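Handoff note, outgoing to incoming analyst
You'll be picking up this chain. Sequence as last confirmed:
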Amino acid sequence: MNGNFSGTGVALITPFKSDLTIDFEALKTITERCITGGCEFLVILGTTGESVVLSHEEKKEVINTILTVNNKRRPTVLGIGGNDTAAVISQVKGVPKGIDAILSVTPYYNKPSQEGLYQHYKAVCEASPIPVILYNVPGRTGVNMTADTTLRIINDCPNAIAIKEASGNADQCFKIMMNAPKGFVLLSGDDNMTLPLIALGAKGVISTVANTVPATYSEMVRKSLSGDYAEARRLHGLTFELVNQIFADGSPAGVKEALAYQGICLRNVRLPLARVNDTVAQNIKHQIDFIKE
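Most recent structure output, in case you need it:
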């Protein structure tokens, strides 16, 4: 399948049993629910999937499980990133069959310069056998990839087809969209920024909240993209406070709390993450009852 990465991409969680092994039955349920709920593409082993605490074998099992459930119904994106460019390239060259694109986060901890970011992505894109979606999330990585650097990368690397932009900077996003080559896609990386960014020209989102309310949230995105902003604002209002609460005490702990309340999986996360506090948990439950999906 050739991916059409617009609309709602869902950054799938990795559910854990009480002994913190992966709950593959719950993973199947969540994946199917996101597909039937209207999400347009699936993102595997991103930040929300707690990829950094999974072993190599666990990652393979998660990928295989999601691809089997999906059965080519939706485009799939695999998170492959890190702060060792050579290691990222090695993983990219071995991307499993059935994956349509790679989502690759800016290197973290070592805080590269803008030139370092450019050279990193240039090397990754040249090595990748499939399209690459850039991922800018300075709140997690410690470095912001500027609009100028993003534009330099996408002009020099034809298989850099999109960016997940989670800088929270609408001006930066707009500059990318105004100057990007035709066909390049900007995706919101913040659930509550999706509606305003689509109004500026974004084509969708890679979402966390879509794990728990896929039908409501993906419909909000579709209404925004079709220009029905009255209905989009109404749906945005339904999910707005839920989004705030699922990020209030750590992600993906918040969205797992919501899924646990819905009876879909347990709320367990692996250290160093921890469950949300009791106040946030109650707020999340209230918002789930309010949406009634």
